[in-house]
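Per your request, structure below.
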């Protein structure tokens, strides 16, 4: 996983972090270097053995049984080809890989070393292969990755990618490397990753990159039998464990950010968790075992940061940054990677976590029918396949179902909603979160993924965004978005997530079951401005838009949906391209629209890279240069034609209380819900607020109700909310509540939030 070379990636930095690293690391180093009290070279040798055991999956599988026998044989055949084709010259190690080949050459050496170290490859402990690995490392260090070489191109290749692969290969083929060869490799690594590289938790030494740099440092310590450097590698991990409030890292609300503004659980986050799981397993039982109490935050991140974005084994694209454009079914591949990391981390986690996570992964594997997880794992790491197979065989571990409810991630402008039979997820952009990320030539047309893209999955829809969706979908018509059709160049906006709009009110409020989420939208490289709200309910998402204004001289559209399917599309029973009350997509779901909105539809086959895919697109045309345009529609995942027609015939099911650039709100009497996005203080229906905020009221049907509020802008010093409903008293107040008045109406006065995280706060009241 490559990163941008940006010094301002992280804003959580400063003398306190630097001093913490220097003094805590120094204390461990002094102990480590004392031959009478600290660990020595023999302890580092144990680390080397543990590294080989953990990364090779020692004892987890029988190499003589399938599917391992075939996988290992193929690895051996690959290694034999590489060994036989190796032709060292001053310009390459293999004729087809001219220098520097920073990724491919070290990767081949590592593959050869794994074939040497793993059983069942046909080349296990074969001296000729081990010697070839040693020769290749020596040659590459002399000609490319040298102690006096200069860094060119992407920093990641020199400081993480190449050294990790070379050091791993050296450790696996260790019996065949001379002291001189190992020493030269260590000197080269020191040139690009000196100990001082870990002094500051800043720039590109944060989050997943910091975990990788610490891993390289630990491998360098093992190769050089250096206990002090091992201590440094472990102590420098600690900043990763702590929650941040801006920039890169884990957030208390479950967000994970890399490159300063890109939600990245499904990319850098997977890298971070995989690295931490590996290090935890390698270090366990050694003098360098991770004992920092803040490591508990990493364990909690499994449930808070990663699991919410995995649906039936696939890692949702809205937290995969530029990686979404890499290959078909990349979301399922990432799902397997996070499953592998979780199962490995479970081996060193407390028993309760271990049991819960194993059941969770088992549920993912059981429901992943689009790309069955166990079968897909046969071609990858044998250790993961063995762990997963063991979990699936274990009758004492029940497969956990998809959890129901709503998860809102204010720090990353993301939301995930789960109900029986369907799941939806929303990606937005704000002054803190990028519209999209492009870089290294990847994802150059992801322009509008932050313009309110609404993903959703029904039953058997696990490949909806997997099967060549990104190369073939119309990038101007992503589902849920409101966009100017102004033509944009590839890579519009800055690279590496430097595409943040000025919007402050982005986020919403949730009581854990339902949610009201809003986005003050500014178009990318456009004059477009709009106010969008989504109300996540039991069987529908009610979508409102208001204040849609643009002066780009081109049409503006709101894309109700754009499904990758050839299924039949019905609009008001018979017609298309008309003002309609409802539409239905066979096998997918229904759409309800109040009369008077200009609904447009399109059936097309789109082709890219040799892949052709059918799409059904439904959109609302706001015309050229709209002024305060708006929309209302209901998305009903999984609904059949009859249910869709019935909802269209019941306009009172969800009453729109307001749909303006000041307030957007609805009331759903059957659910006891009233919810409003207050873009400005004011009134909508029976709710009023003194300042911009989000409010969700739910009558629980047992004589009580909850009033949940949030400050998406993270700016309020106080807030007053009134609800025009008789209330007898408070059942469960909130610490931030300064005062409350009950009676014919409820008035709640909140003080300044305890943090600026945009979190939801709930007060429970007893109805009169």
């Amino acid at each position: 996983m490559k990163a941008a070379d940006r010094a301002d990636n992280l804003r959580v930095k400063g003398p306190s972090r630097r001093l913490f690293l220097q003094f805590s690391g120094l204390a461990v180093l002094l102990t480590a270097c004392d031959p009478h009290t600290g660990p020595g070279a023999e302890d580092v040798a144990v680390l080397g053995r543990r590294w080989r055991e953990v990364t090779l999956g020692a004892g987890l599988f029988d190499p003589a049984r399938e599917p391992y026998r075939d996988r290992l044989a193929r690895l051996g055949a690959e290694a034999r080809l590489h060994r036989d084709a190796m032709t060292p010259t001053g310009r390459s190690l293999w004729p087809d890989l001219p220098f520097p080949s920073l990724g491919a050459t070290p990767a081949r050496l590592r593959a050869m070393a794994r074939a040497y170290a793993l059983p069942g490859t046909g080349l296990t402990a074969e001296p000729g292969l081990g010697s070839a690995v040693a020769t290749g490392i020596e040659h590459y260090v002399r000609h490319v990755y040298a102690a006096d070489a200069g860094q060119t191109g992407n920093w990641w290749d020199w400081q993480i990618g190449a050294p990790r692969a070379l050091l791993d290969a050296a450790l696996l083929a260790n019996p065949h490397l001379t002291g001189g060869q190992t020493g030269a490799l260590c000197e080269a690594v020191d040139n690009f990753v000196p100990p001082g590289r870990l002094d500051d938790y800043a720039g590109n030494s944060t989050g997943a990159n910091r975990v990788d740099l610490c891993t390289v440092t630990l491998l360098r310590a093992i190769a050089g039998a250096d206990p002090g450097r091992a201590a440094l590698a472990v102590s420098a991990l600690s900043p990763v464990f702590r929650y941040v409030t801006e920039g890169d890292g884990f957030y208390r609300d479950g967000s994970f950010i890399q490159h300063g503004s890109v939600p990245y659980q499904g990319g850098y986050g997977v890298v971070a968790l995989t690295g931490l799981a590996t290090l935890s397993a390698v270090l366990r039982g050694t003098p360098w075992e991770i004992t920092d109490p803040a490591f508990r935050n990493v364990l909690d991140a499994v449930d808070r940061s990663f699991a919410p974005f995995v649906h039936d084994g696939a890692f949702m694209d809205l937290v995969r940054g530029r990686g979404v454009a890499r290959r078909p079914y990349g979301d399922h591949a990432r799902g397997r990677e996070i499953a592998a990391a979780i199962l490995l981390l479970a081996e060193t986690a407390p028993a309760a976590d271990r049991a819960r996570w194993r059941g969770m992964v088992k549920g993912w594997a059981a429901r992943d029918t689009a790309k069955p997880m166990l079968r897909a794992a046969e071609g990858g790491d044998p250790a993961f396949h063995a762990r997963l197979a063991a979990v699936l065989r274990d009758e004492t571990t029940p497969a956990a179902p998809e959890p129901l409810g709503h998860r809102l991630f204010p720090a990353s402008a993301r939301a995930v909603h789960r109900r029986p039979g369907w799941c939806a997820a929303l990606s937005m952009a704000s002054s803190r979160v990028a519209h999209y990320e492009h870089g290294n030539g990847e994802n150059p047309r992801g322009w509008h993924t932050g313009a309110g893209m609404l993903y959703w999955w029904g039953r058997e829809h696990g490949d909806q965004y997997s099967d060549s969706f990104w190369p073939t979908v119309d990038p101007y018509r992503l589902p849920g978005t409101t966009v100017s059709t102004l033509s944009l160049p590839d890579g519009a906006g800055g690279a590496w997530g430097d595409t943040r709009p000025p919007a402050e009110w982005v986020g919403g409020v949730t009581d854990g079951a339902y949610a009201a989420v809003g986005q003050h939208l500014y178009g990318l490289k456009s004059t477009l401005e709009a106010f969008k709200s989504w109300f996540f309910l039991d069987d529908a998402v009610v979508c409102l838009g208001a204040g849609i204004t643009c002066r780009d001289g081109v049409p503006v559209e709101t894309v109700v949906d754009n499904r990758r399917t050839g299924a039949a599309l019905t609009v008001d029973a018979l017609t298309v391209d008309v003002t309609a009350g409802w539409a239905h997509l066979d096998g997918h779901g229904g759409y309800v629209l109040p009369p008077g909105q200009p609904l447009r539809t399109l059936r097309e086959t789109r082709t890219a890279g040799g892949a052709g895919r059918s799409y059904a697109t439904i959109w609302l045309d706001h015309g050229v240069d709209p002024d305060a345009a708006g929309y209302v529609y209901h998305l009903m995942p999984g609904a059949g034609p009859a249910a869709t027609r019935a909802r269209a015939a019941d306009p009172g099911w969800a009453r729109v209380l307001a749909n303006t650039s000041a307030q957007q709100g609805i009331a759903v009497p059957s659910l006891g819900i009233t919810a409003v996005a207050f873009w400005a203080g004011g009134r909508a229906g029976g709710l009023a607020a003194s300042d911009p905020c989000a409010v969700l009221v739910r009558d629980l049907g047992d004589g009580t109700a909850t009033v949940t509020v949030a400050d998406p802008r993270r700016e309020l010093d106080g807030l007053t909310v009134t609800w025009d409903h008789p209330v007898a008293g408070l059942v469960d107040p909130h610490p931030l509540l300064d005062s409350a008045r009950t009676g014919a109406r409820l008035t709640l006065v909140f003080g300044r939030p305890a943090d600026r995280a945009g979190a939801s706060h709930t007060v429970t009241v007893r109805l009169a």
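The radius of gyration is 28 Å.

Regards,
D.
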